[in-house]
């Protein structure tokens, strides 16, 4: 995995580069302490992942650097690693069609290199990874979790929310049953849904969809 590091704290950038270089299968192909230098190196070196802070001093911030890199190479993953959650920056700057392949981690809740590597691996596969504190901060904007889904996955999720079975979804979208299963598996993974507290991922997915549309979840509607 080829990695480019951008951070306005030179010592942190150097230490992170050293830690990553010690991991097998990781090559740090560039480091920079300014946004402009980081963007230039990322475009020149074509890394698999760019790991950047959000504030980078005067000029571009890390989100803008990530967007510029993704415009040139959409397959490149971007990991935001910072002290704070800049929710409004992320929501206003990252359009839905470019939301896949991002991670947002907090330095205080990223305990080791393994956690960072897991996020780096996920963004190279087009997934979105959020630290729990980031997820909590973003939850006040109900639609954010759907930004990583493809248009087809959104169609499948909408039909699930309307109460359709997999067979009915396949018929509606002219897909095979296996294709529908694959889309559902992918959207579960992107939404980070697991069997939790007795709620099946399908139920959790429906709740997320309804909340994103400003609608009450099924249990709430029944209570009304």
Describe this structure in words.
The chain is of the alpha/beta class and 224 residues long. It has two domains: 2-132, Rossmann fold; 151-215, Winged helix-like DNA-binding domain superfamily/Winged helix DNA-binding domain (Arc Repressor Mutant, subunit A, Orthogonal Bundle), CATH 1.10.10. The chain has eleven helices and six strands. Strands 2-1-3-4-5-6 form a six-stranded parallel β-sheet, sandwiched between helices. Helix 1 links the parallel strand 1 and strand 2 (27-32). The longest helix is centred in the last third of the chain and has 14 residues, at 177-190. It is elongated and about 55 Å long. The termini are far apart.
Detail the topology: elements first, then pairings:
Elements: E1 2-6, H1 10-21, E2 27-32, H2 35-45, E3 49-52, H3 62-72, E4 77-82, H4 87-93, E5 102-106, H5 113-124, E6 129-130, H6 132-138, H7 151-161, H8 166-173, H9 177-190, H10 201-212, H11 218-223
Parallel strand pairs: 1-2, 1-3, 3-4, 4-5, 5-6
CATH fold category name of the largest domain: Rossmann fold
Silhouette: elongated
Secondary-structure-derived class: alpha/beta
- Taken together, the total number of domains comes to 2
Beginning-to-end CA distance, first to last residue: 52 Å
CATH superfamily of the largest domain: Response regulator
Give the count of helical stretches: 11
For the record, what CATH class of the largest domain applies?
Answer: Alpha Beta
Strand content: 5-15%
- What order do the helices and strands follow? EHEHEHEHEHEHHHHHH
Q: Return the average pLDDT rounded to an integer.
A: 85
Largest sheet descriptor: 6 strands, parallel
How many strands in all? 6
CATH architecture classification of the largest domain: 3-Layer(aba) Sandwich
Sequence of strands across the biggest β-sheet: 2-1-3-4-5-6
Radius of gyration: 19 Å
């Amino acid at each position: 995995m080829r990695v480019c590091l951008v951070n306005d704290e030179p010592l942190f950038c150097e230490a992170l580069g050293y830690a990553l270089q010690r991991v097998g299968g990781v090559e740090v192909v560039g480091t920079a302490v300014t946004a402009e230098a980081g963007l230039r190196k990322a475009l020149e070196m074509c890394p698999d992942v760019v790991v950047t802070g959000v504030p980078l001093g005067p000029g571009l911030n890390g989100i803008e650097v990530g967007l510029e890199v993704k415009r040139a190479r959409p397959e490149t993953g971007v990991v935001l690693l910072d002290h704070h959650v800049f929710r409004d920056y992320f929501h206003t700057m990252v359009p839905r069609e470019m939301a896949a392949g991002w991670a947002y981690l907090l330095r205080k809740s990223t305990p080791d290199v393994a956690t960072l590597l897991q996020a780096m691996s996920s963004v190279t596969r087009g997934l979105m990874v959020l630290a729990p504190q980031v997820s909590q901060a973003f939850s006040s904007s109900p639609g954010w979790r759907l930004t990583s889904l493809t248009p087809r996955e959104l169609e499948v999720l909408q039909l699930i929310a309307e109460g359709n079975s997999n067979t009915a979804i396949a018929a509606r979208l002219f897909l095979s049953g296996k294709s529908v299963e694959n889309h559902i598996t992918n959207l579960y993974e992107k939404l980070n849904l697991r069997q939790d507290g007795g709620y099946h991922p399908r139920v959790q997915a429906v709740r997320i969809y309804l909340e994103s549309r400003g609608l009450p979840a099924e249990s709430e509607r029944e209570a009304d």
